[in-house]
Amino acid sequence: MSAELLRLTAEHVVLVVVAMTIAILLAVPGGVLLTRREGWRTPLLAFAGVMQTIPSLALFGFLIPVPLIGGIGRRTAIVALVLYALLPILRNTLAGILGVDRAVRESAVAMGMTDRQVLLEVEIPLAARTILAGIRVAAVTTIGTATIAAAIGGGGLGVLIFRGIATVDSGLILAGAIPSAALALVADGALGLVERRFAK
Predict the structure, then answer these.
(1) Other Cβ atoms within 10 Å of 150 Cβ, number
(2) d(CA 60, CA 58)
(3) pLDDT tens for residues 134-150?
(4) What is the DSSP annotation of 91-139?
(5) Distance separating alpha carbons of residues 92 and 135, to the nearest angstrom
(6) HSE-CB of 77 using CA atoms within 13 angstroms
């Protein structure tokens, strides 16, 4: 049992890390883009919001028949987890950059900085704490949602939870739920420390 628990925990961590990496690579640049393209904000934020309101099990099921990204297995699970993680990162990136004092931005431009330099050297550093807060929320949520991946063959700690439900074995359910909760607490604590460092 211990060997299986370690294997499933490793699978769970891989699911979360891969999904979060993709979500960050999509949502942070996306949030930056929305600060420059005001007309795109409503439709893109609405799309991300709709994705998060769909019940997790239903979203996993909806993706199965989708060509290229669908099917049974880890790939579909990762796509679903990415869609769930987009909104908090996208929204916080947008809010963080828009929250930078206009006077600071104008001062940077007056010093001769290009838009790219203003973004990389002024806006993102000042918005970093807000962006990290969004990543922190997304990470904790993704760790919990990843347990549903087992329903479509994605692996992870949800395997034990679903097996426990099927056999009415509370021990198996706890064997999957407790490590998942522990992972969420560790991720929340670690990202919270990083977030506080940017507050100094």
Answers:
(1) 23
(2) 5
(3) 999 999 999 999 999 88
(4) HHHHHHHHTS-HHHHHHHHHTT--HHHHIIIIIHHHHHHHHHHHHHHHH
(5) 8
(6) 27
* Type of residue found at 77: A
Question: 94 vs 19, 44, 88, CA distance in Å?
Answer: 20, 12, 10
Give the residue among 102, 103, 86, 100 at the shortest CA–CA distance from 128: 100
Q: How many CA atoms lie within 13 A of 62 on its CB side?
A: 10
What is the pTM assigned to this prediction? 0.89
Residue position matching structure tokens 């942070």: 28
Which tokens belong to 188?
């929340």
Look at the block and give the residue holding tokens 């990470």: 139
Per-residue confidence at 183, pLDDT binned at 50, 70, 90?
A: very high
